[in-house]
Specification:
mainly beta, four-stranded antiparallel sheet
């Protein structure tokens, strides 16, 4: 079994900052990629940021220059630093893990989601 523990969401004023974290544990042989998606009411889930096993990163255009994804491999944890937050960043943020289990099968796993609300 795999567990993802997310934390760091909340309410923040426009222009403020939040840091999300996602810690993976369980039957993981290796992590291929880990990142965040978000889903706002009435909208489809979209990729926000992802970091690959080699450290490469990818961001959706709307967060480039404001959000930074980074990792602590020793803790199997990834972080999303969100600065200069805007009301349109309001959404439920979901951590996503792409990994190989001990059977070497490639799988994906989702966290429970954390609410980020940007409002004055």
């Amino acid at each position: 079994q795999v567990q993802l523990v997310e934390s760091g969401g909340g309410l923040v004023q426009p222009g403020g900052s939040l840091r999300l974290s996602c810690a993976a544990s369980g039957s993981i042989f290796s992590i291929n990629a880990m990142g965040w998606y978000r889903q706002a009411p009435g909208k489809q889930r979209e990729l926000v940021a992802v970091i690959g096993s080699g450290g490469s990163t990818n961001y959706t255009d709307s967060v480039k220059g404001r959000f930074t994804i980074f990792r602590d491999n020793a803790k199997n944890t990834r972080y999303l630093q969100m600065n200069s937050l805007k009301p349109e960043d309001t959404a439920v943020y979901y951590c996503n893990l792409v990994y190989r289990g001990r059977d070497y099968v490639l799988r994906t796993y989702w966290g429970q989601g954390t609410q980020v609300t940007v409002s004055s």
